[in-house]
Amino acid sequence: MGKLRGWPAPDKRRFLAQAEFPGAYYVGDPDEIAQRIVDLHGHMGHMRHFLQMDIGGLPQEHFLESLILLATEVKPRVERLLAGK
Length: 85
Known about the structure:
Layout (H helix, E strand, L loop, with lengths): L1 H4 L6 H8 L10 H15 L15 H24 L2
Helix pairs in contact: 3-4
């Protein structure tokens, strides 16, 4: 699709620029993801945070593991961090 639209091919440098804070890709352990959500909340005050997770054909087992981590690890951390502010 990118080639059809004239976009440059993906490269590691651009990926890492987005994967590291304050980039748009949320990549990391539950603590890192929770901190990034809370940081963005500090700037925007948003009440909902939408994440798109199925990019690049992630195997279902990894997708489900990530979804479970979001629900059981990240969300409670975000709630605790926001409650402490």
